[in-house]
Amino acid sequence: MNVLLLHAGIADNRMWAPQVEALEAAGHRVFAPDLPGYGTAALEPGEVAYVEFAAAQLDGPAAVVGCSFGGRIALELALDRPDLVQRLVLVGAPPLPGAEWSEAAQGDFAEEEGLLEGGDLAGAAAQQARMWLAPDADPAVRALTEAMTLRSYELQLPLEDAVKATWPEPVTAERLAELAVPTLVVVGAADVDDIQATAGDLAAQIPGARLERIEGAGHLPGLERPEELNRLLLDVLR
């Protein structure tokens, strides 16, 4: 089966290395692009249509797996282009458009913004890793997450006033009820409360969706607990 992996906003396609290896070994055809403004993908001034970008990676139907920001793209793709999505996996999906983050999360984002405004990109990347990863995350995973986040800052900040993301019609409960694709919702048991709540909401509102929690993982289960996420993905793809 074709599998499209869409990475988180604090990462790039390197976060999927354990999944790419496992899925390809099982005979699946895997696409794991860097989204514009991440990893090796330069950002250009103008509008960035992430859902259209994701659709353009595919030459036919696929299982679409999205983590965090990538989860929003995956969800929008399933709603906008159901012909392309055979399976949908949402990992640590963010609150739906219009929902407000908790005061705790807003405080973390304000801290990040302060560090960025002060020019401390490395400090902001480290702060984001502390926010999103489980407290006992492997040091190598923490270092990689910081490096991926730092890279996104380097690509995006010089163009932040010249780039605008565009999205299809906003996701609503009514639209979620229209989804007719087999859906798995995954969340790390150590992820932030907002993400935990969103996972429950999505599983309740998407017809037939199943919710799985991965113990010991924060926002990036694919890196923090790769064997557990691999097991869930391989099961979905049968």
Walk me through this protein's architecture.
The chain has 238 residues and is α/β, with parallel strands linked by helices. It has one domain (2-100, 161-236): Alpha/Beta hydrolase fold, catalytic domain (Rossmann fold), CATH 3.40.50. 44% of the residues lie in helices and 17% in strands. It has 10 helices and 8 strands. It has a 6-stranded parallel beta sheet, with helices on both faces. A two-stranded parallel sheet has the order 3-6. Helix 1 (17-25) links the parallel strand 1 and strand 2. Helix 5 (121-132) crosses helix 6. The longest helix has 18 residues, at 139-156. It is globular. 40% of the residues are buried.
* SSE order: EHEEHEHEHHHEHEHEHH
How much strand?
Answer: 15-25%
CATH top-level class: Alpha Beta
Structural class: alpha/beta
Report the CATH topology name: Rossmann fold
Taking the alpha carbons of the first and last residues, their distance comes to: 9 Å
Low-confidence spans: pLDDT under 50, at least 5 residues? none
**CATH homology superfamily name:** Alpha/Beta hydrolase fold, catalytic domain
Main β-sheet, spatial strand arrangement: 2-1-4-5-7-8
Number of discrete helical segments: 10
CATH-defined architecture = 3-Layer(aba) Sandwich
- Percent of residues in helices: 40-55%
The largest β sheet comes out as: 6 strands, parallel
C-alpha geometry: globular
Total domain modules: 1
**What average pLDDT do the residues reach?**
95
Radius of gyration: 17 Å
- Care to count the β-strands? 8
